[in-house]
Amino acid sequence: GIQVWTTLRTEAPILVVSDIRLNMERLDPAQPLTALLEIKNTGKTAAFITEFRQLLITDKILSDGLQPRNAGVRGAVSPGEVRHIELDFGKPPDLDSAMVNNGTLRLWILGSIVYSNRLSFLAGTNKTGFCFFYDPSRGRGSDSFYHCQRPEYEYND
């Protein structure tokens, strides 16, 4: 019992969302909003992504209970592998780019990744939640995303 559980835990893949950045220097209302998300498998076995959900929101609607949409990302991530995923949000109609760029309105990207491994038939699937906010006022250009550090959004189950 305990030995099987220990093996399942120590051999499991662990997906970590380590970075996110815009594919442009600053938000531009004339351009589609895309970002590059970096995922790393810090576990000992391959992870097979079965569901990837993403949501783009601002401070105005953070508490409205919106649900992330399925982005259709699938595939394997080997142990130690870093994978980059492009997130395409199109042209959000109600996004005030000027307010986000000057720091008066915060932009949030959050979501979750559900994944399995070769032992999932015994232990079930795993889930990683991620949450970042964009703060260009800190002067790092497209690399101005920071972990939101909220356990209800950032977790590994």
Describe it for me?
The protein has three helices and ten strands. It has helices spanning 2-10, 97-101, 120-123, and strands spanning 15-22, 34-41, 47-58, 69-70, 75-77, 82-88, 107-116, 126-134, 145-147, 155-156.
SSE layout and pairing:
Layout lengths: L1 H9 L4 E8 L11 E8 L5 E12 L10 E2 L4 E3 L4 E7 L8 H5 L5 E10 L3 H4 L2 E9 L10 E3 L7 E2 L1
Antiparallel strand pairs: 1-2, 2-6, 3-4, 3-5, 3-7, 7-8, 8-9, 8-10
Residue runs with pLDDT of under 50 for 5 or more positions: none
* Oligomeric organization of the protein chains: single chain
**Mean pLDDT, all residues:** 82
User: Could you say which structural class the secondary elements and strand pairing correspond to?
Assistant: mainly beta
Q: Helical residue percent? A: 10-25%
- Apparent shape: elongated
Strand elements, count: 10
Give the percentage of residues in beta strands: 35-45%
What brief labels describe this structure?
single chain, 157 residues, mainly beta, 7-stranded antiparallel β-sheet, 3-stranded antiparallel β-sheet, 3 helices, 10 strands, 11% helix, 41% strand, elongated
